[in-house]
Amino acid sequence: MTRWTAGLLMLLALALSPGIALATAIGEPLEFETEAQRQQYETLTRELRCTVCQSETIHESNAELAADMRRRVYQMTRDGMSADAIVDFMVARYGDYVRYRPPLQANTALLWASPFLLFGGGLLVWWQVMRRRARPDDEPQFTDQERAALERLRRGN
After folding, report:
1. Which UniProt keywords apply (predicted)?
2. Are 45 and 59 in contact (CB under 8 A)?
3. How far apart are CA 150 and CA 140, in angstroms?
4. pLDDT digits over 100-120, tens only?
C-alpha cells in the first residue's frame, strides 16, 4: 500500500468518524429571523453548562446532550421565547447546575460564600501563628545554684 492510498484511507476514516460529525454540527450555520435572536442564542449557549461535560458550555461541548440542548435553545429562540424563559426551562429540566453563574439563593449561599470563608479561615490561622511567634517564650526558671553557674560562665571563670 502506498503512502498516497494510506493517506486517503485515513482521511476517509476521519471524515466518517462520529466525533468529526459532531464537531461539524456545532459549527453549522443557523438561520434566525433577527439579529437579536442570533445574539440571544449565542449568549445562552455560552452561559449554559453541559451537564455531561461539567466544565464546558453547551457551545463548546461535543456531547450529544449538549447538541440536544443547543437544538432546544435554537428552537425556543426561533419560537420567540425570552432568554429568561429559556433559562427557566433549562433550570427546571436540569437544575441550577446548568447555569455557569448560579443565582444567590439559600441553596447556593455556601457556594458563593466559600471563597470568603476560606480566605477568612486562612487569615485567622496566619494571625494565630504570627501571634505565637511574636510572644516571647517564658524564661526558664533557674535555681540560685544555676544562676551562679551561669554568671561564672559569663565572666569567664
Report:
1. Cytochrome c-type biogenesis, Heme, Iron, Membrane, Metal-binding, Signal, Transmembrane, Transmembrane helix
2. yes
3. 13
4. 777 777 777 787 788 999 999
Instruction: Give the contacts of 14 (CB within 8 A, at least 6 positions apart).
Output: 20
- Residue bearing the bigger pLDDT, 6 or 142: 142
pLDDT of residue 157: 64
Cα-trace Rg, the chain:
33
| Residue 56: partners with Cβ closer than 8 Å, 6 or more residues away | 49, 50, 66
- Give the separation between CA 76 and CA 74, rounded to whole angstroms: 6
- Contact in structure between 27 and 41 (CB atoms under 8 Å): no
Angle made by CA atoms 23, 25, 31, in degrees to the nearest 5: 140
Amino acid 39 reads Q
Interatomic CA distance for residues 90 and 40, integer angstroms: 15
pLDDT for 19 equals: 41
| 57: three-class secondary structure by DSSP | strand
